[in-house]
Amino acid sequence: MAPGGPDDLGPLVEVVTFDGQVLTGRLLERWQAPSGTWFYTVSVTLWASVQTRDGQVVAEPADTIFDAPATHVHRIEGVSYEAVPTRRGREAIIRARTRGRR
Question: What's the predicted TM-score (pTM) here?
Fold first, then answer.
């Protein structure tokens, strides 16, 4: 796939929405909140209305980026996630190093 193509956005994942729908998206980043909770930044493609130069309003696919709790983002078998950026929270690193002692 050419640079800038769909494969550059990240590996495919399944995202479970708050009401139980399952969407296929792209995993952009994994990050850890100060509380230790993991979140995944994902992108899903949804419909959006776009006004063209001649004033027409048309429907086009548009990427929507959001953070979801890691518990609601699921791997797809056979897909590699090795290249996904991962950021651990500073507080979580300190807790791990001190085993909760401060």
Answer: 0.78
